Prior knowledge:
- Helices cover 31% and strands 14% of the residues.
- By secondary structure, the chain is of the alpha+beta class.
- It has a four-stranded mixed β-sheet with strand order 12-11-10-13.
- Strand 8 and strand 9 form a beta hairpin.
Amino acid sequence: MTAPEEDKLREQALATLTTARDRTTLLTSCVEDPDLTAQHSPLMSPLVWDLAHIGNQEEQWLLRTVAGREAMRPEIDGLYDAFEHPRAERPSLPLLPPDEARRYASEVRGRVMDVLESTAFHGTRLTEAGFAFGMIAQHEQQHDETMLITHQLRKGPQALTAPDPEPVALFTGPAEVLVPGGPFTMGTSTEPWALDNERPAHRREVAPFYIDTTPVTNGAYQAFIEDGGYDDPRWWTSEGWAHIRKNSVTAPLYWNRDGKQWLRRRFGVTEVVPPDEPVLHVCWYEADAYARWAGRRLPTEAEWEKAARHDPAGCRSMRYPWGDADPAPEHANLGQRHLRPAPAGSYPEGESPLGVRQLIGDVWEWTASDFLPYPGFQAFPYKEYSEVFFGPEYKVLRGGAFAVDAVACRGTFRNWDYPIRRQIFSGFRTARSGDV
């Protein structure tokens, strides 16, 4: 790596770390301390836990591991170990109070800035191309997304604001796109900050299939509801049917019917459900049932990635649907720039060569696939990031959402969760098998 290349990566690391911390500060300063220490749902940590956990992970990896410095607060490591304490237990722990958590995270960051200036971006796998700094920026942004989920779950008045996406004309393009069959390269071996589950790049053979041009919208999903979709076991797996009956699930999370119209609660505001937005806050079982009702299915993870990355003209896999350039505002709805998905059909400059839109940003998209390792997978830098989650109990989501920062969203990026989860910013698009 040349010195100018290293300087550019160092600037990128600084920018992504700063962007993440600015967002963390916003998410933890827009409410009073009681809201930071409260647990707003047993599914989520108190916001103050996330804040100190962000600082603790940064200290452990960048100060202790990369720089070899002594621990600042070793006595709190156990409190902020995500595997040692389930989320439901965290409010009972002797957590750092808000002001102390802020000071700790700030002091860690100040020392990290010195480490960033002095660390060579080569020599070890952890420091190569600044990977450790990119990993920590992604980690913080992932917790920022988690904190935004907590803000959506929080009862009370609106605490966050953001401009709405630009209005667009109703999308009138083709409902689906044919993705040709054949091989493509899935995953990556070259993306410098890609995480272990995205690696290594490998060849996949995919039969031809059709995929929705845009994510499924609220209006389309309402048709499923009005047709009795939640009352007909034909559309549901046995596990899905048992889940919705046991938990009285009859619509996406945060939806309520008011006479003939549907309302939703979004970050403290109640509003009419916009029919042209991608449907949000549905679990895998709901997405799968809708697809069956529509005579279609969820795409596999390989199909989704081929639709998002395959360039038929160049016979190659791109970093993003629009090419190799980093995401810009005209490409996708990312980074909490807005607090809602953009209307279906938005961002024509972000569409794939085949004409598929909104594959990156807006809503995480459920796929049909279980979360499994790629051939040749190697855990790095620790097994608990991916390896312990591999198995049929988790389903893969792809593409990111409006709550996801660009540093934690690529054409190869993989997310996963239980098929019952709905508090996440999840939607979907459907597919069907096709002929050439």
